[in-house]
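Comment on the following before class.
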Amino acid sequence: MYDYSKLNELAIEELRDVMGVCRHLIKKRGEETARNLLSGSKVMFKGSDGILTSGVILRKKRTRAIVIEDETNTRWDVPFSLLESAPETKPANNILTFPR
C-alpha cells in the first residue's frame, strides 16, 4: 500500500503538476503497450467491475483494442493503458487415452 499523506501538504498548483505527470506516464505506457501487442495476443485487464479478466485481442485501433473475453466471448473495447500481456500457458499433454 502507498502512503499518500504527503499529497495533503502540496499546494493546488503542485497537485495539478502531479496529475499532469501521471497523465503523461499513463499515455506513454499505453503507447508502449500498443506497440508490443498484436492481434491475437493474450491479454489481461480489470473490467469495470474490478475483476481481472483475460482475453485475446481481436483488433487494434489507434488508442484501444477490441478484446474477446476467454470465458464468455464478450467483446470489450479496452484502452491500451489498461491492458497487460498475459503469461503464456503451456498446453496440457496432448496424449489421448481411450477406455478399453
About this structure: The chain has a mean pLDDT of 88. Residues 5-85 form a domain with the SH3 type barrels. fold (CATH 2.30.30.140). The chain has one domain: 5-85.
